[in-house]
Design brief:
Strands 6-7-8-3-9-10 form a 6-stranded mixed sheet, sandwiched between helices. A 5-stranded antiparallel sheet has the order 13-17-14-15-16, with no helix packed on it. Helix 5 links the parallel strand 7 and strand 8. About 25% of the residues lie in helices and about 30% in strands. With about 350 residues, it is an alpha+beta fold. It is globular and about 80 Å long. It is built from 9 helices and 18 strands. The longest helix has 18 residues. The model has no long low-confidence stretch (mean pLDDT about 90).
Length: about 350
């Protein structure tokens, strides 16, 4: 198993406004990654989480050798591979688009990465059969891409990466185009497959629930910077700042400025943002209650209430059959033991 490290990585793209035929000046360059530093553990599934424009895909492209960084290093077990061409890095990348060859069978698609190399036909056939068996595709080897379901297409795409037996897998939002049920199935499948293979995997997503459900560790990125790297439980309980707190958790956390917190009787937070998870807010019906229920969202297993007092709103997670409804007067209490004091970002 191999560990990979990134040290002070900086990447930029020319600003398109600089013009197609003019070399951009220094101030016409858009910085995408700024001093990115992290290390993967051998056999780890590290999920890179962030909104659009965070630099997630750029980071994967730089690690794969598809993008030359301005500065910084990429290391494999301490060996600098920053200048090594992509085909010599022994990494495999799966993109959001499956990009299968429609006129090739599943077997031919799986075998394609090994063609033209030093693999004899017998070895190629052996690897195709092994890979198909691992991915549950043994009965589909003679099928063509248009005949496959979305999950099967995704497994073939994974298989094309897997068949090379690379040291590092790079998955760039591979489940985005799948429906909710299939995404959940594939999340479990990828997690199980990665643990079975004991290989290192970097998985990019903008979905916080996907990140929390799959990762050994989560790396939260924003605008080309790393906000925090930690295990899912740790990053949820102790977010580094208000951005990390806000991107993780469903329903989304309540983030209150000092003047807003005081209206709910919450303590002075010394200029920091006060974070309260909806599950730590208790709502009870009361004719004399100073707050009102403004919105009810039924999730089946729970009810999300948006309550308001003095024009400041809080979200609360309550029992699904609490009987509360929009317009009700309520008392609202916050569990002070679980208040987070967060640096604004």
């Amino acid at each position: 198993m191999h560990a990979f490290s990134v040290e002070n990585l900086n990447c930029s793209y020319p600003d398109r406004r600089a013009g197609m035929f003019r070399r951009p000046s220094a101030d016409a360059v858009h910085n995408v990654l700024s001093n990115i530093t992290f290390t993967t553990e051998p056999g780890e599934l590290l999920v890179i989480l962030g909104e659009g424009g965070a630099g997630k895909s750029t980071l994967l492209r730089a690690m794969a050798g598809l993008l030359k960084p301005l500065s910084g290093r990429i290391l494999e077990n301490g060996r600098d591979i920053t200048a090594i061409p992509p085909h010599l890095r022994d990494m495999a990348m799966v993109f959001q688009n499956f990009s299968l060859y429609p006129r090739m069978t599943v077997a031919e698609n799986l075998a394609f990465p090994l063609k033209g190399g030093s693999f004899p036909l017998s070895e190629i056939q052996k690897r195709v059969e092994e890979t198909a068996g691992t991915l549950g595709l043994s009965e589909k080897l003679g099928r063509y891409a248009p005949e496959l379901s979305g999950g099967e297409l995704q497994r073939v795409a994974l298989g094309r990466a897997l068949i090379r037996k690379p040291k590092l897998f790079l998955l760039d939002e591979p489940l985005t185009n799948l429906d909710a049920k299939l995404r959940e199935q594939m999340q479990t499948y990828i997690r199980r497959l990665q643990k079975y293979l004991q290989t290192t995997l970097l998985f990019v997503t903008h979905d916080a629930e996907e990140a929390m459900g799959m990762a050994d560790r989560v790396m939260v990125m924003r605008k080309g910077e790393v906000m925090q790297i930690a295990a899912p439980e740790e990053i949820y309980r102790n977010p580094a700042n208000s951005y990390v707190a806000g991107i993780l958790g469903s329903p989304v956390i309540n983030l209150l400025a000092p003047e807003e917190a005081s209206r709910w009787g919450l303590p002075d937070n010394s200029g920091r943002i006060l974070g309260v998870r909806p599950e730590h807010v208790t709502v009870t019906a009361s004719l004399q209650g100073r707050a009102r229920v403004r919105v009810c969202q039924h999730l089946g297993h729970a009810l999300v209430l948006t309550v308001e007092r003095d024009e400041v709103r809080l979200r609360a997670l309550v029992e699904p059959f609490s009987g509360l409804k929009e317009g009700d007067a309520v008392d609202v209490n916050v569990d002070f033991r679980n208040i987070l004091l967060l640096e604004p970002r």
